[in-house]
Structure formats: structure tokens, C-alpha cells
Amino acid sequence: MKSSIYDCVILPLNKVHNRAGNITVVEGGKNVPFDVKRIYYLYDIPGGEDRGAHGHKELRQLILAAGGSFNVMLDDGLNKKIVTLNRPDYGLLIVPGIWRELMEFSSGAICLVLASEIYIEDDYIRSYDEFINYKKK
Ligand code: TYD
Hints:
CATH class: Mainly Beta
Order of helices and strands: EEEEEEEEEEEEH
Low-confidence stretches: none
Distance between the termini: 6 Å
Helix content: under 10%
Radius of gyration: 15 Å
Number of strands: 12
Oligomer: single chain
Strand order of the largest sheet: 1-9-6-11-4
CATH topology: Jelly Rolls
Bound molecules: thymidine-5'-diphosphate
């Protein structure tokens, strides 16, 4: 699995602004490069708690801060980078084969995740050692 953290990019989304506020639309296959099969969101995250700490074999995701902010640490087994998400009109594309940890959630943060597949527990790699072995294949 040769994917790299440099394949995980920030995608600017559209924003329609008027005096009553903003709307951002994400359309599968149009401004996100996969068909969206599942949406979930993380919220009410207690201060100091981290989420994630796993990799995926096939799943592609677009992660964004629908509210507040948080950091995403990406790791491909060779390199790491930390991306701050703090705007609802920018999403982080995460490709398969990337270890990710979500941390430093602000109070009231909402992490919205658009996913290319339904939930499949077998797609998860939950042990870092197993992830490193998987990346060597
Ligand atoms: P998990 O993906 O491990 O959470 P995070 O990466 O945010 O820390 O999921 C937490 C729990 O929720 C786990 O028991 C599986 C369950 N879950 C589902 O049932 N369906 C889903 O689509 C997701 C994302 C999680």
C-alpha cells in the first residue's frame, strides 16, 4: 500500500454567501472525488480527548470542521504531518492506507466525515504495528 500523506490534500469547497449566512454543498463525484455512501459526525468531544488512531484499507474520506476546530495527524509509515481544520468550506481528503489521529478539538467542535463506503469493521487497521506491516506490502 504505497499511498502517502502527500496524497491527502485540502479541498476548497464552494461557499454561497448572503446576508442570511453561508451554505456549502458537497456533491459526490463532483467536488469530492468519490461517491458518498456514508456521513457521520463527531461532536460533544470532551476537552483533551483524541479520536481516530487507526488506518483504513480501502476507505476514502473527506473530513471537515462543520464547527469549531481540531487537528488531524496523518502518518503513512514514513512521514507525518498535522493539518488544522477550522473552516467549514475546506475539507481534508484522506486516501486509503493512512494512519490518522484527531486531536485538540475546540469546545463545541463538530467533525463531519463523508465516506466512500458504508461501515465495514474489517476495513479498519486498529493496531499501529499492524499498520506498519500493512504499509510494507
Ligand atoms: P471509530 O471509527 O473507532 O471512532 P473514531 O475513529 O472517531 O474514534 O468508531 C467508534 C464506534 O462507533 C465503534 O464502536 C464503531 C462505531 N461506528 C459505527 O457503528 N459506524 C460507523 O460508521 C462508525 C464511523 C463508527
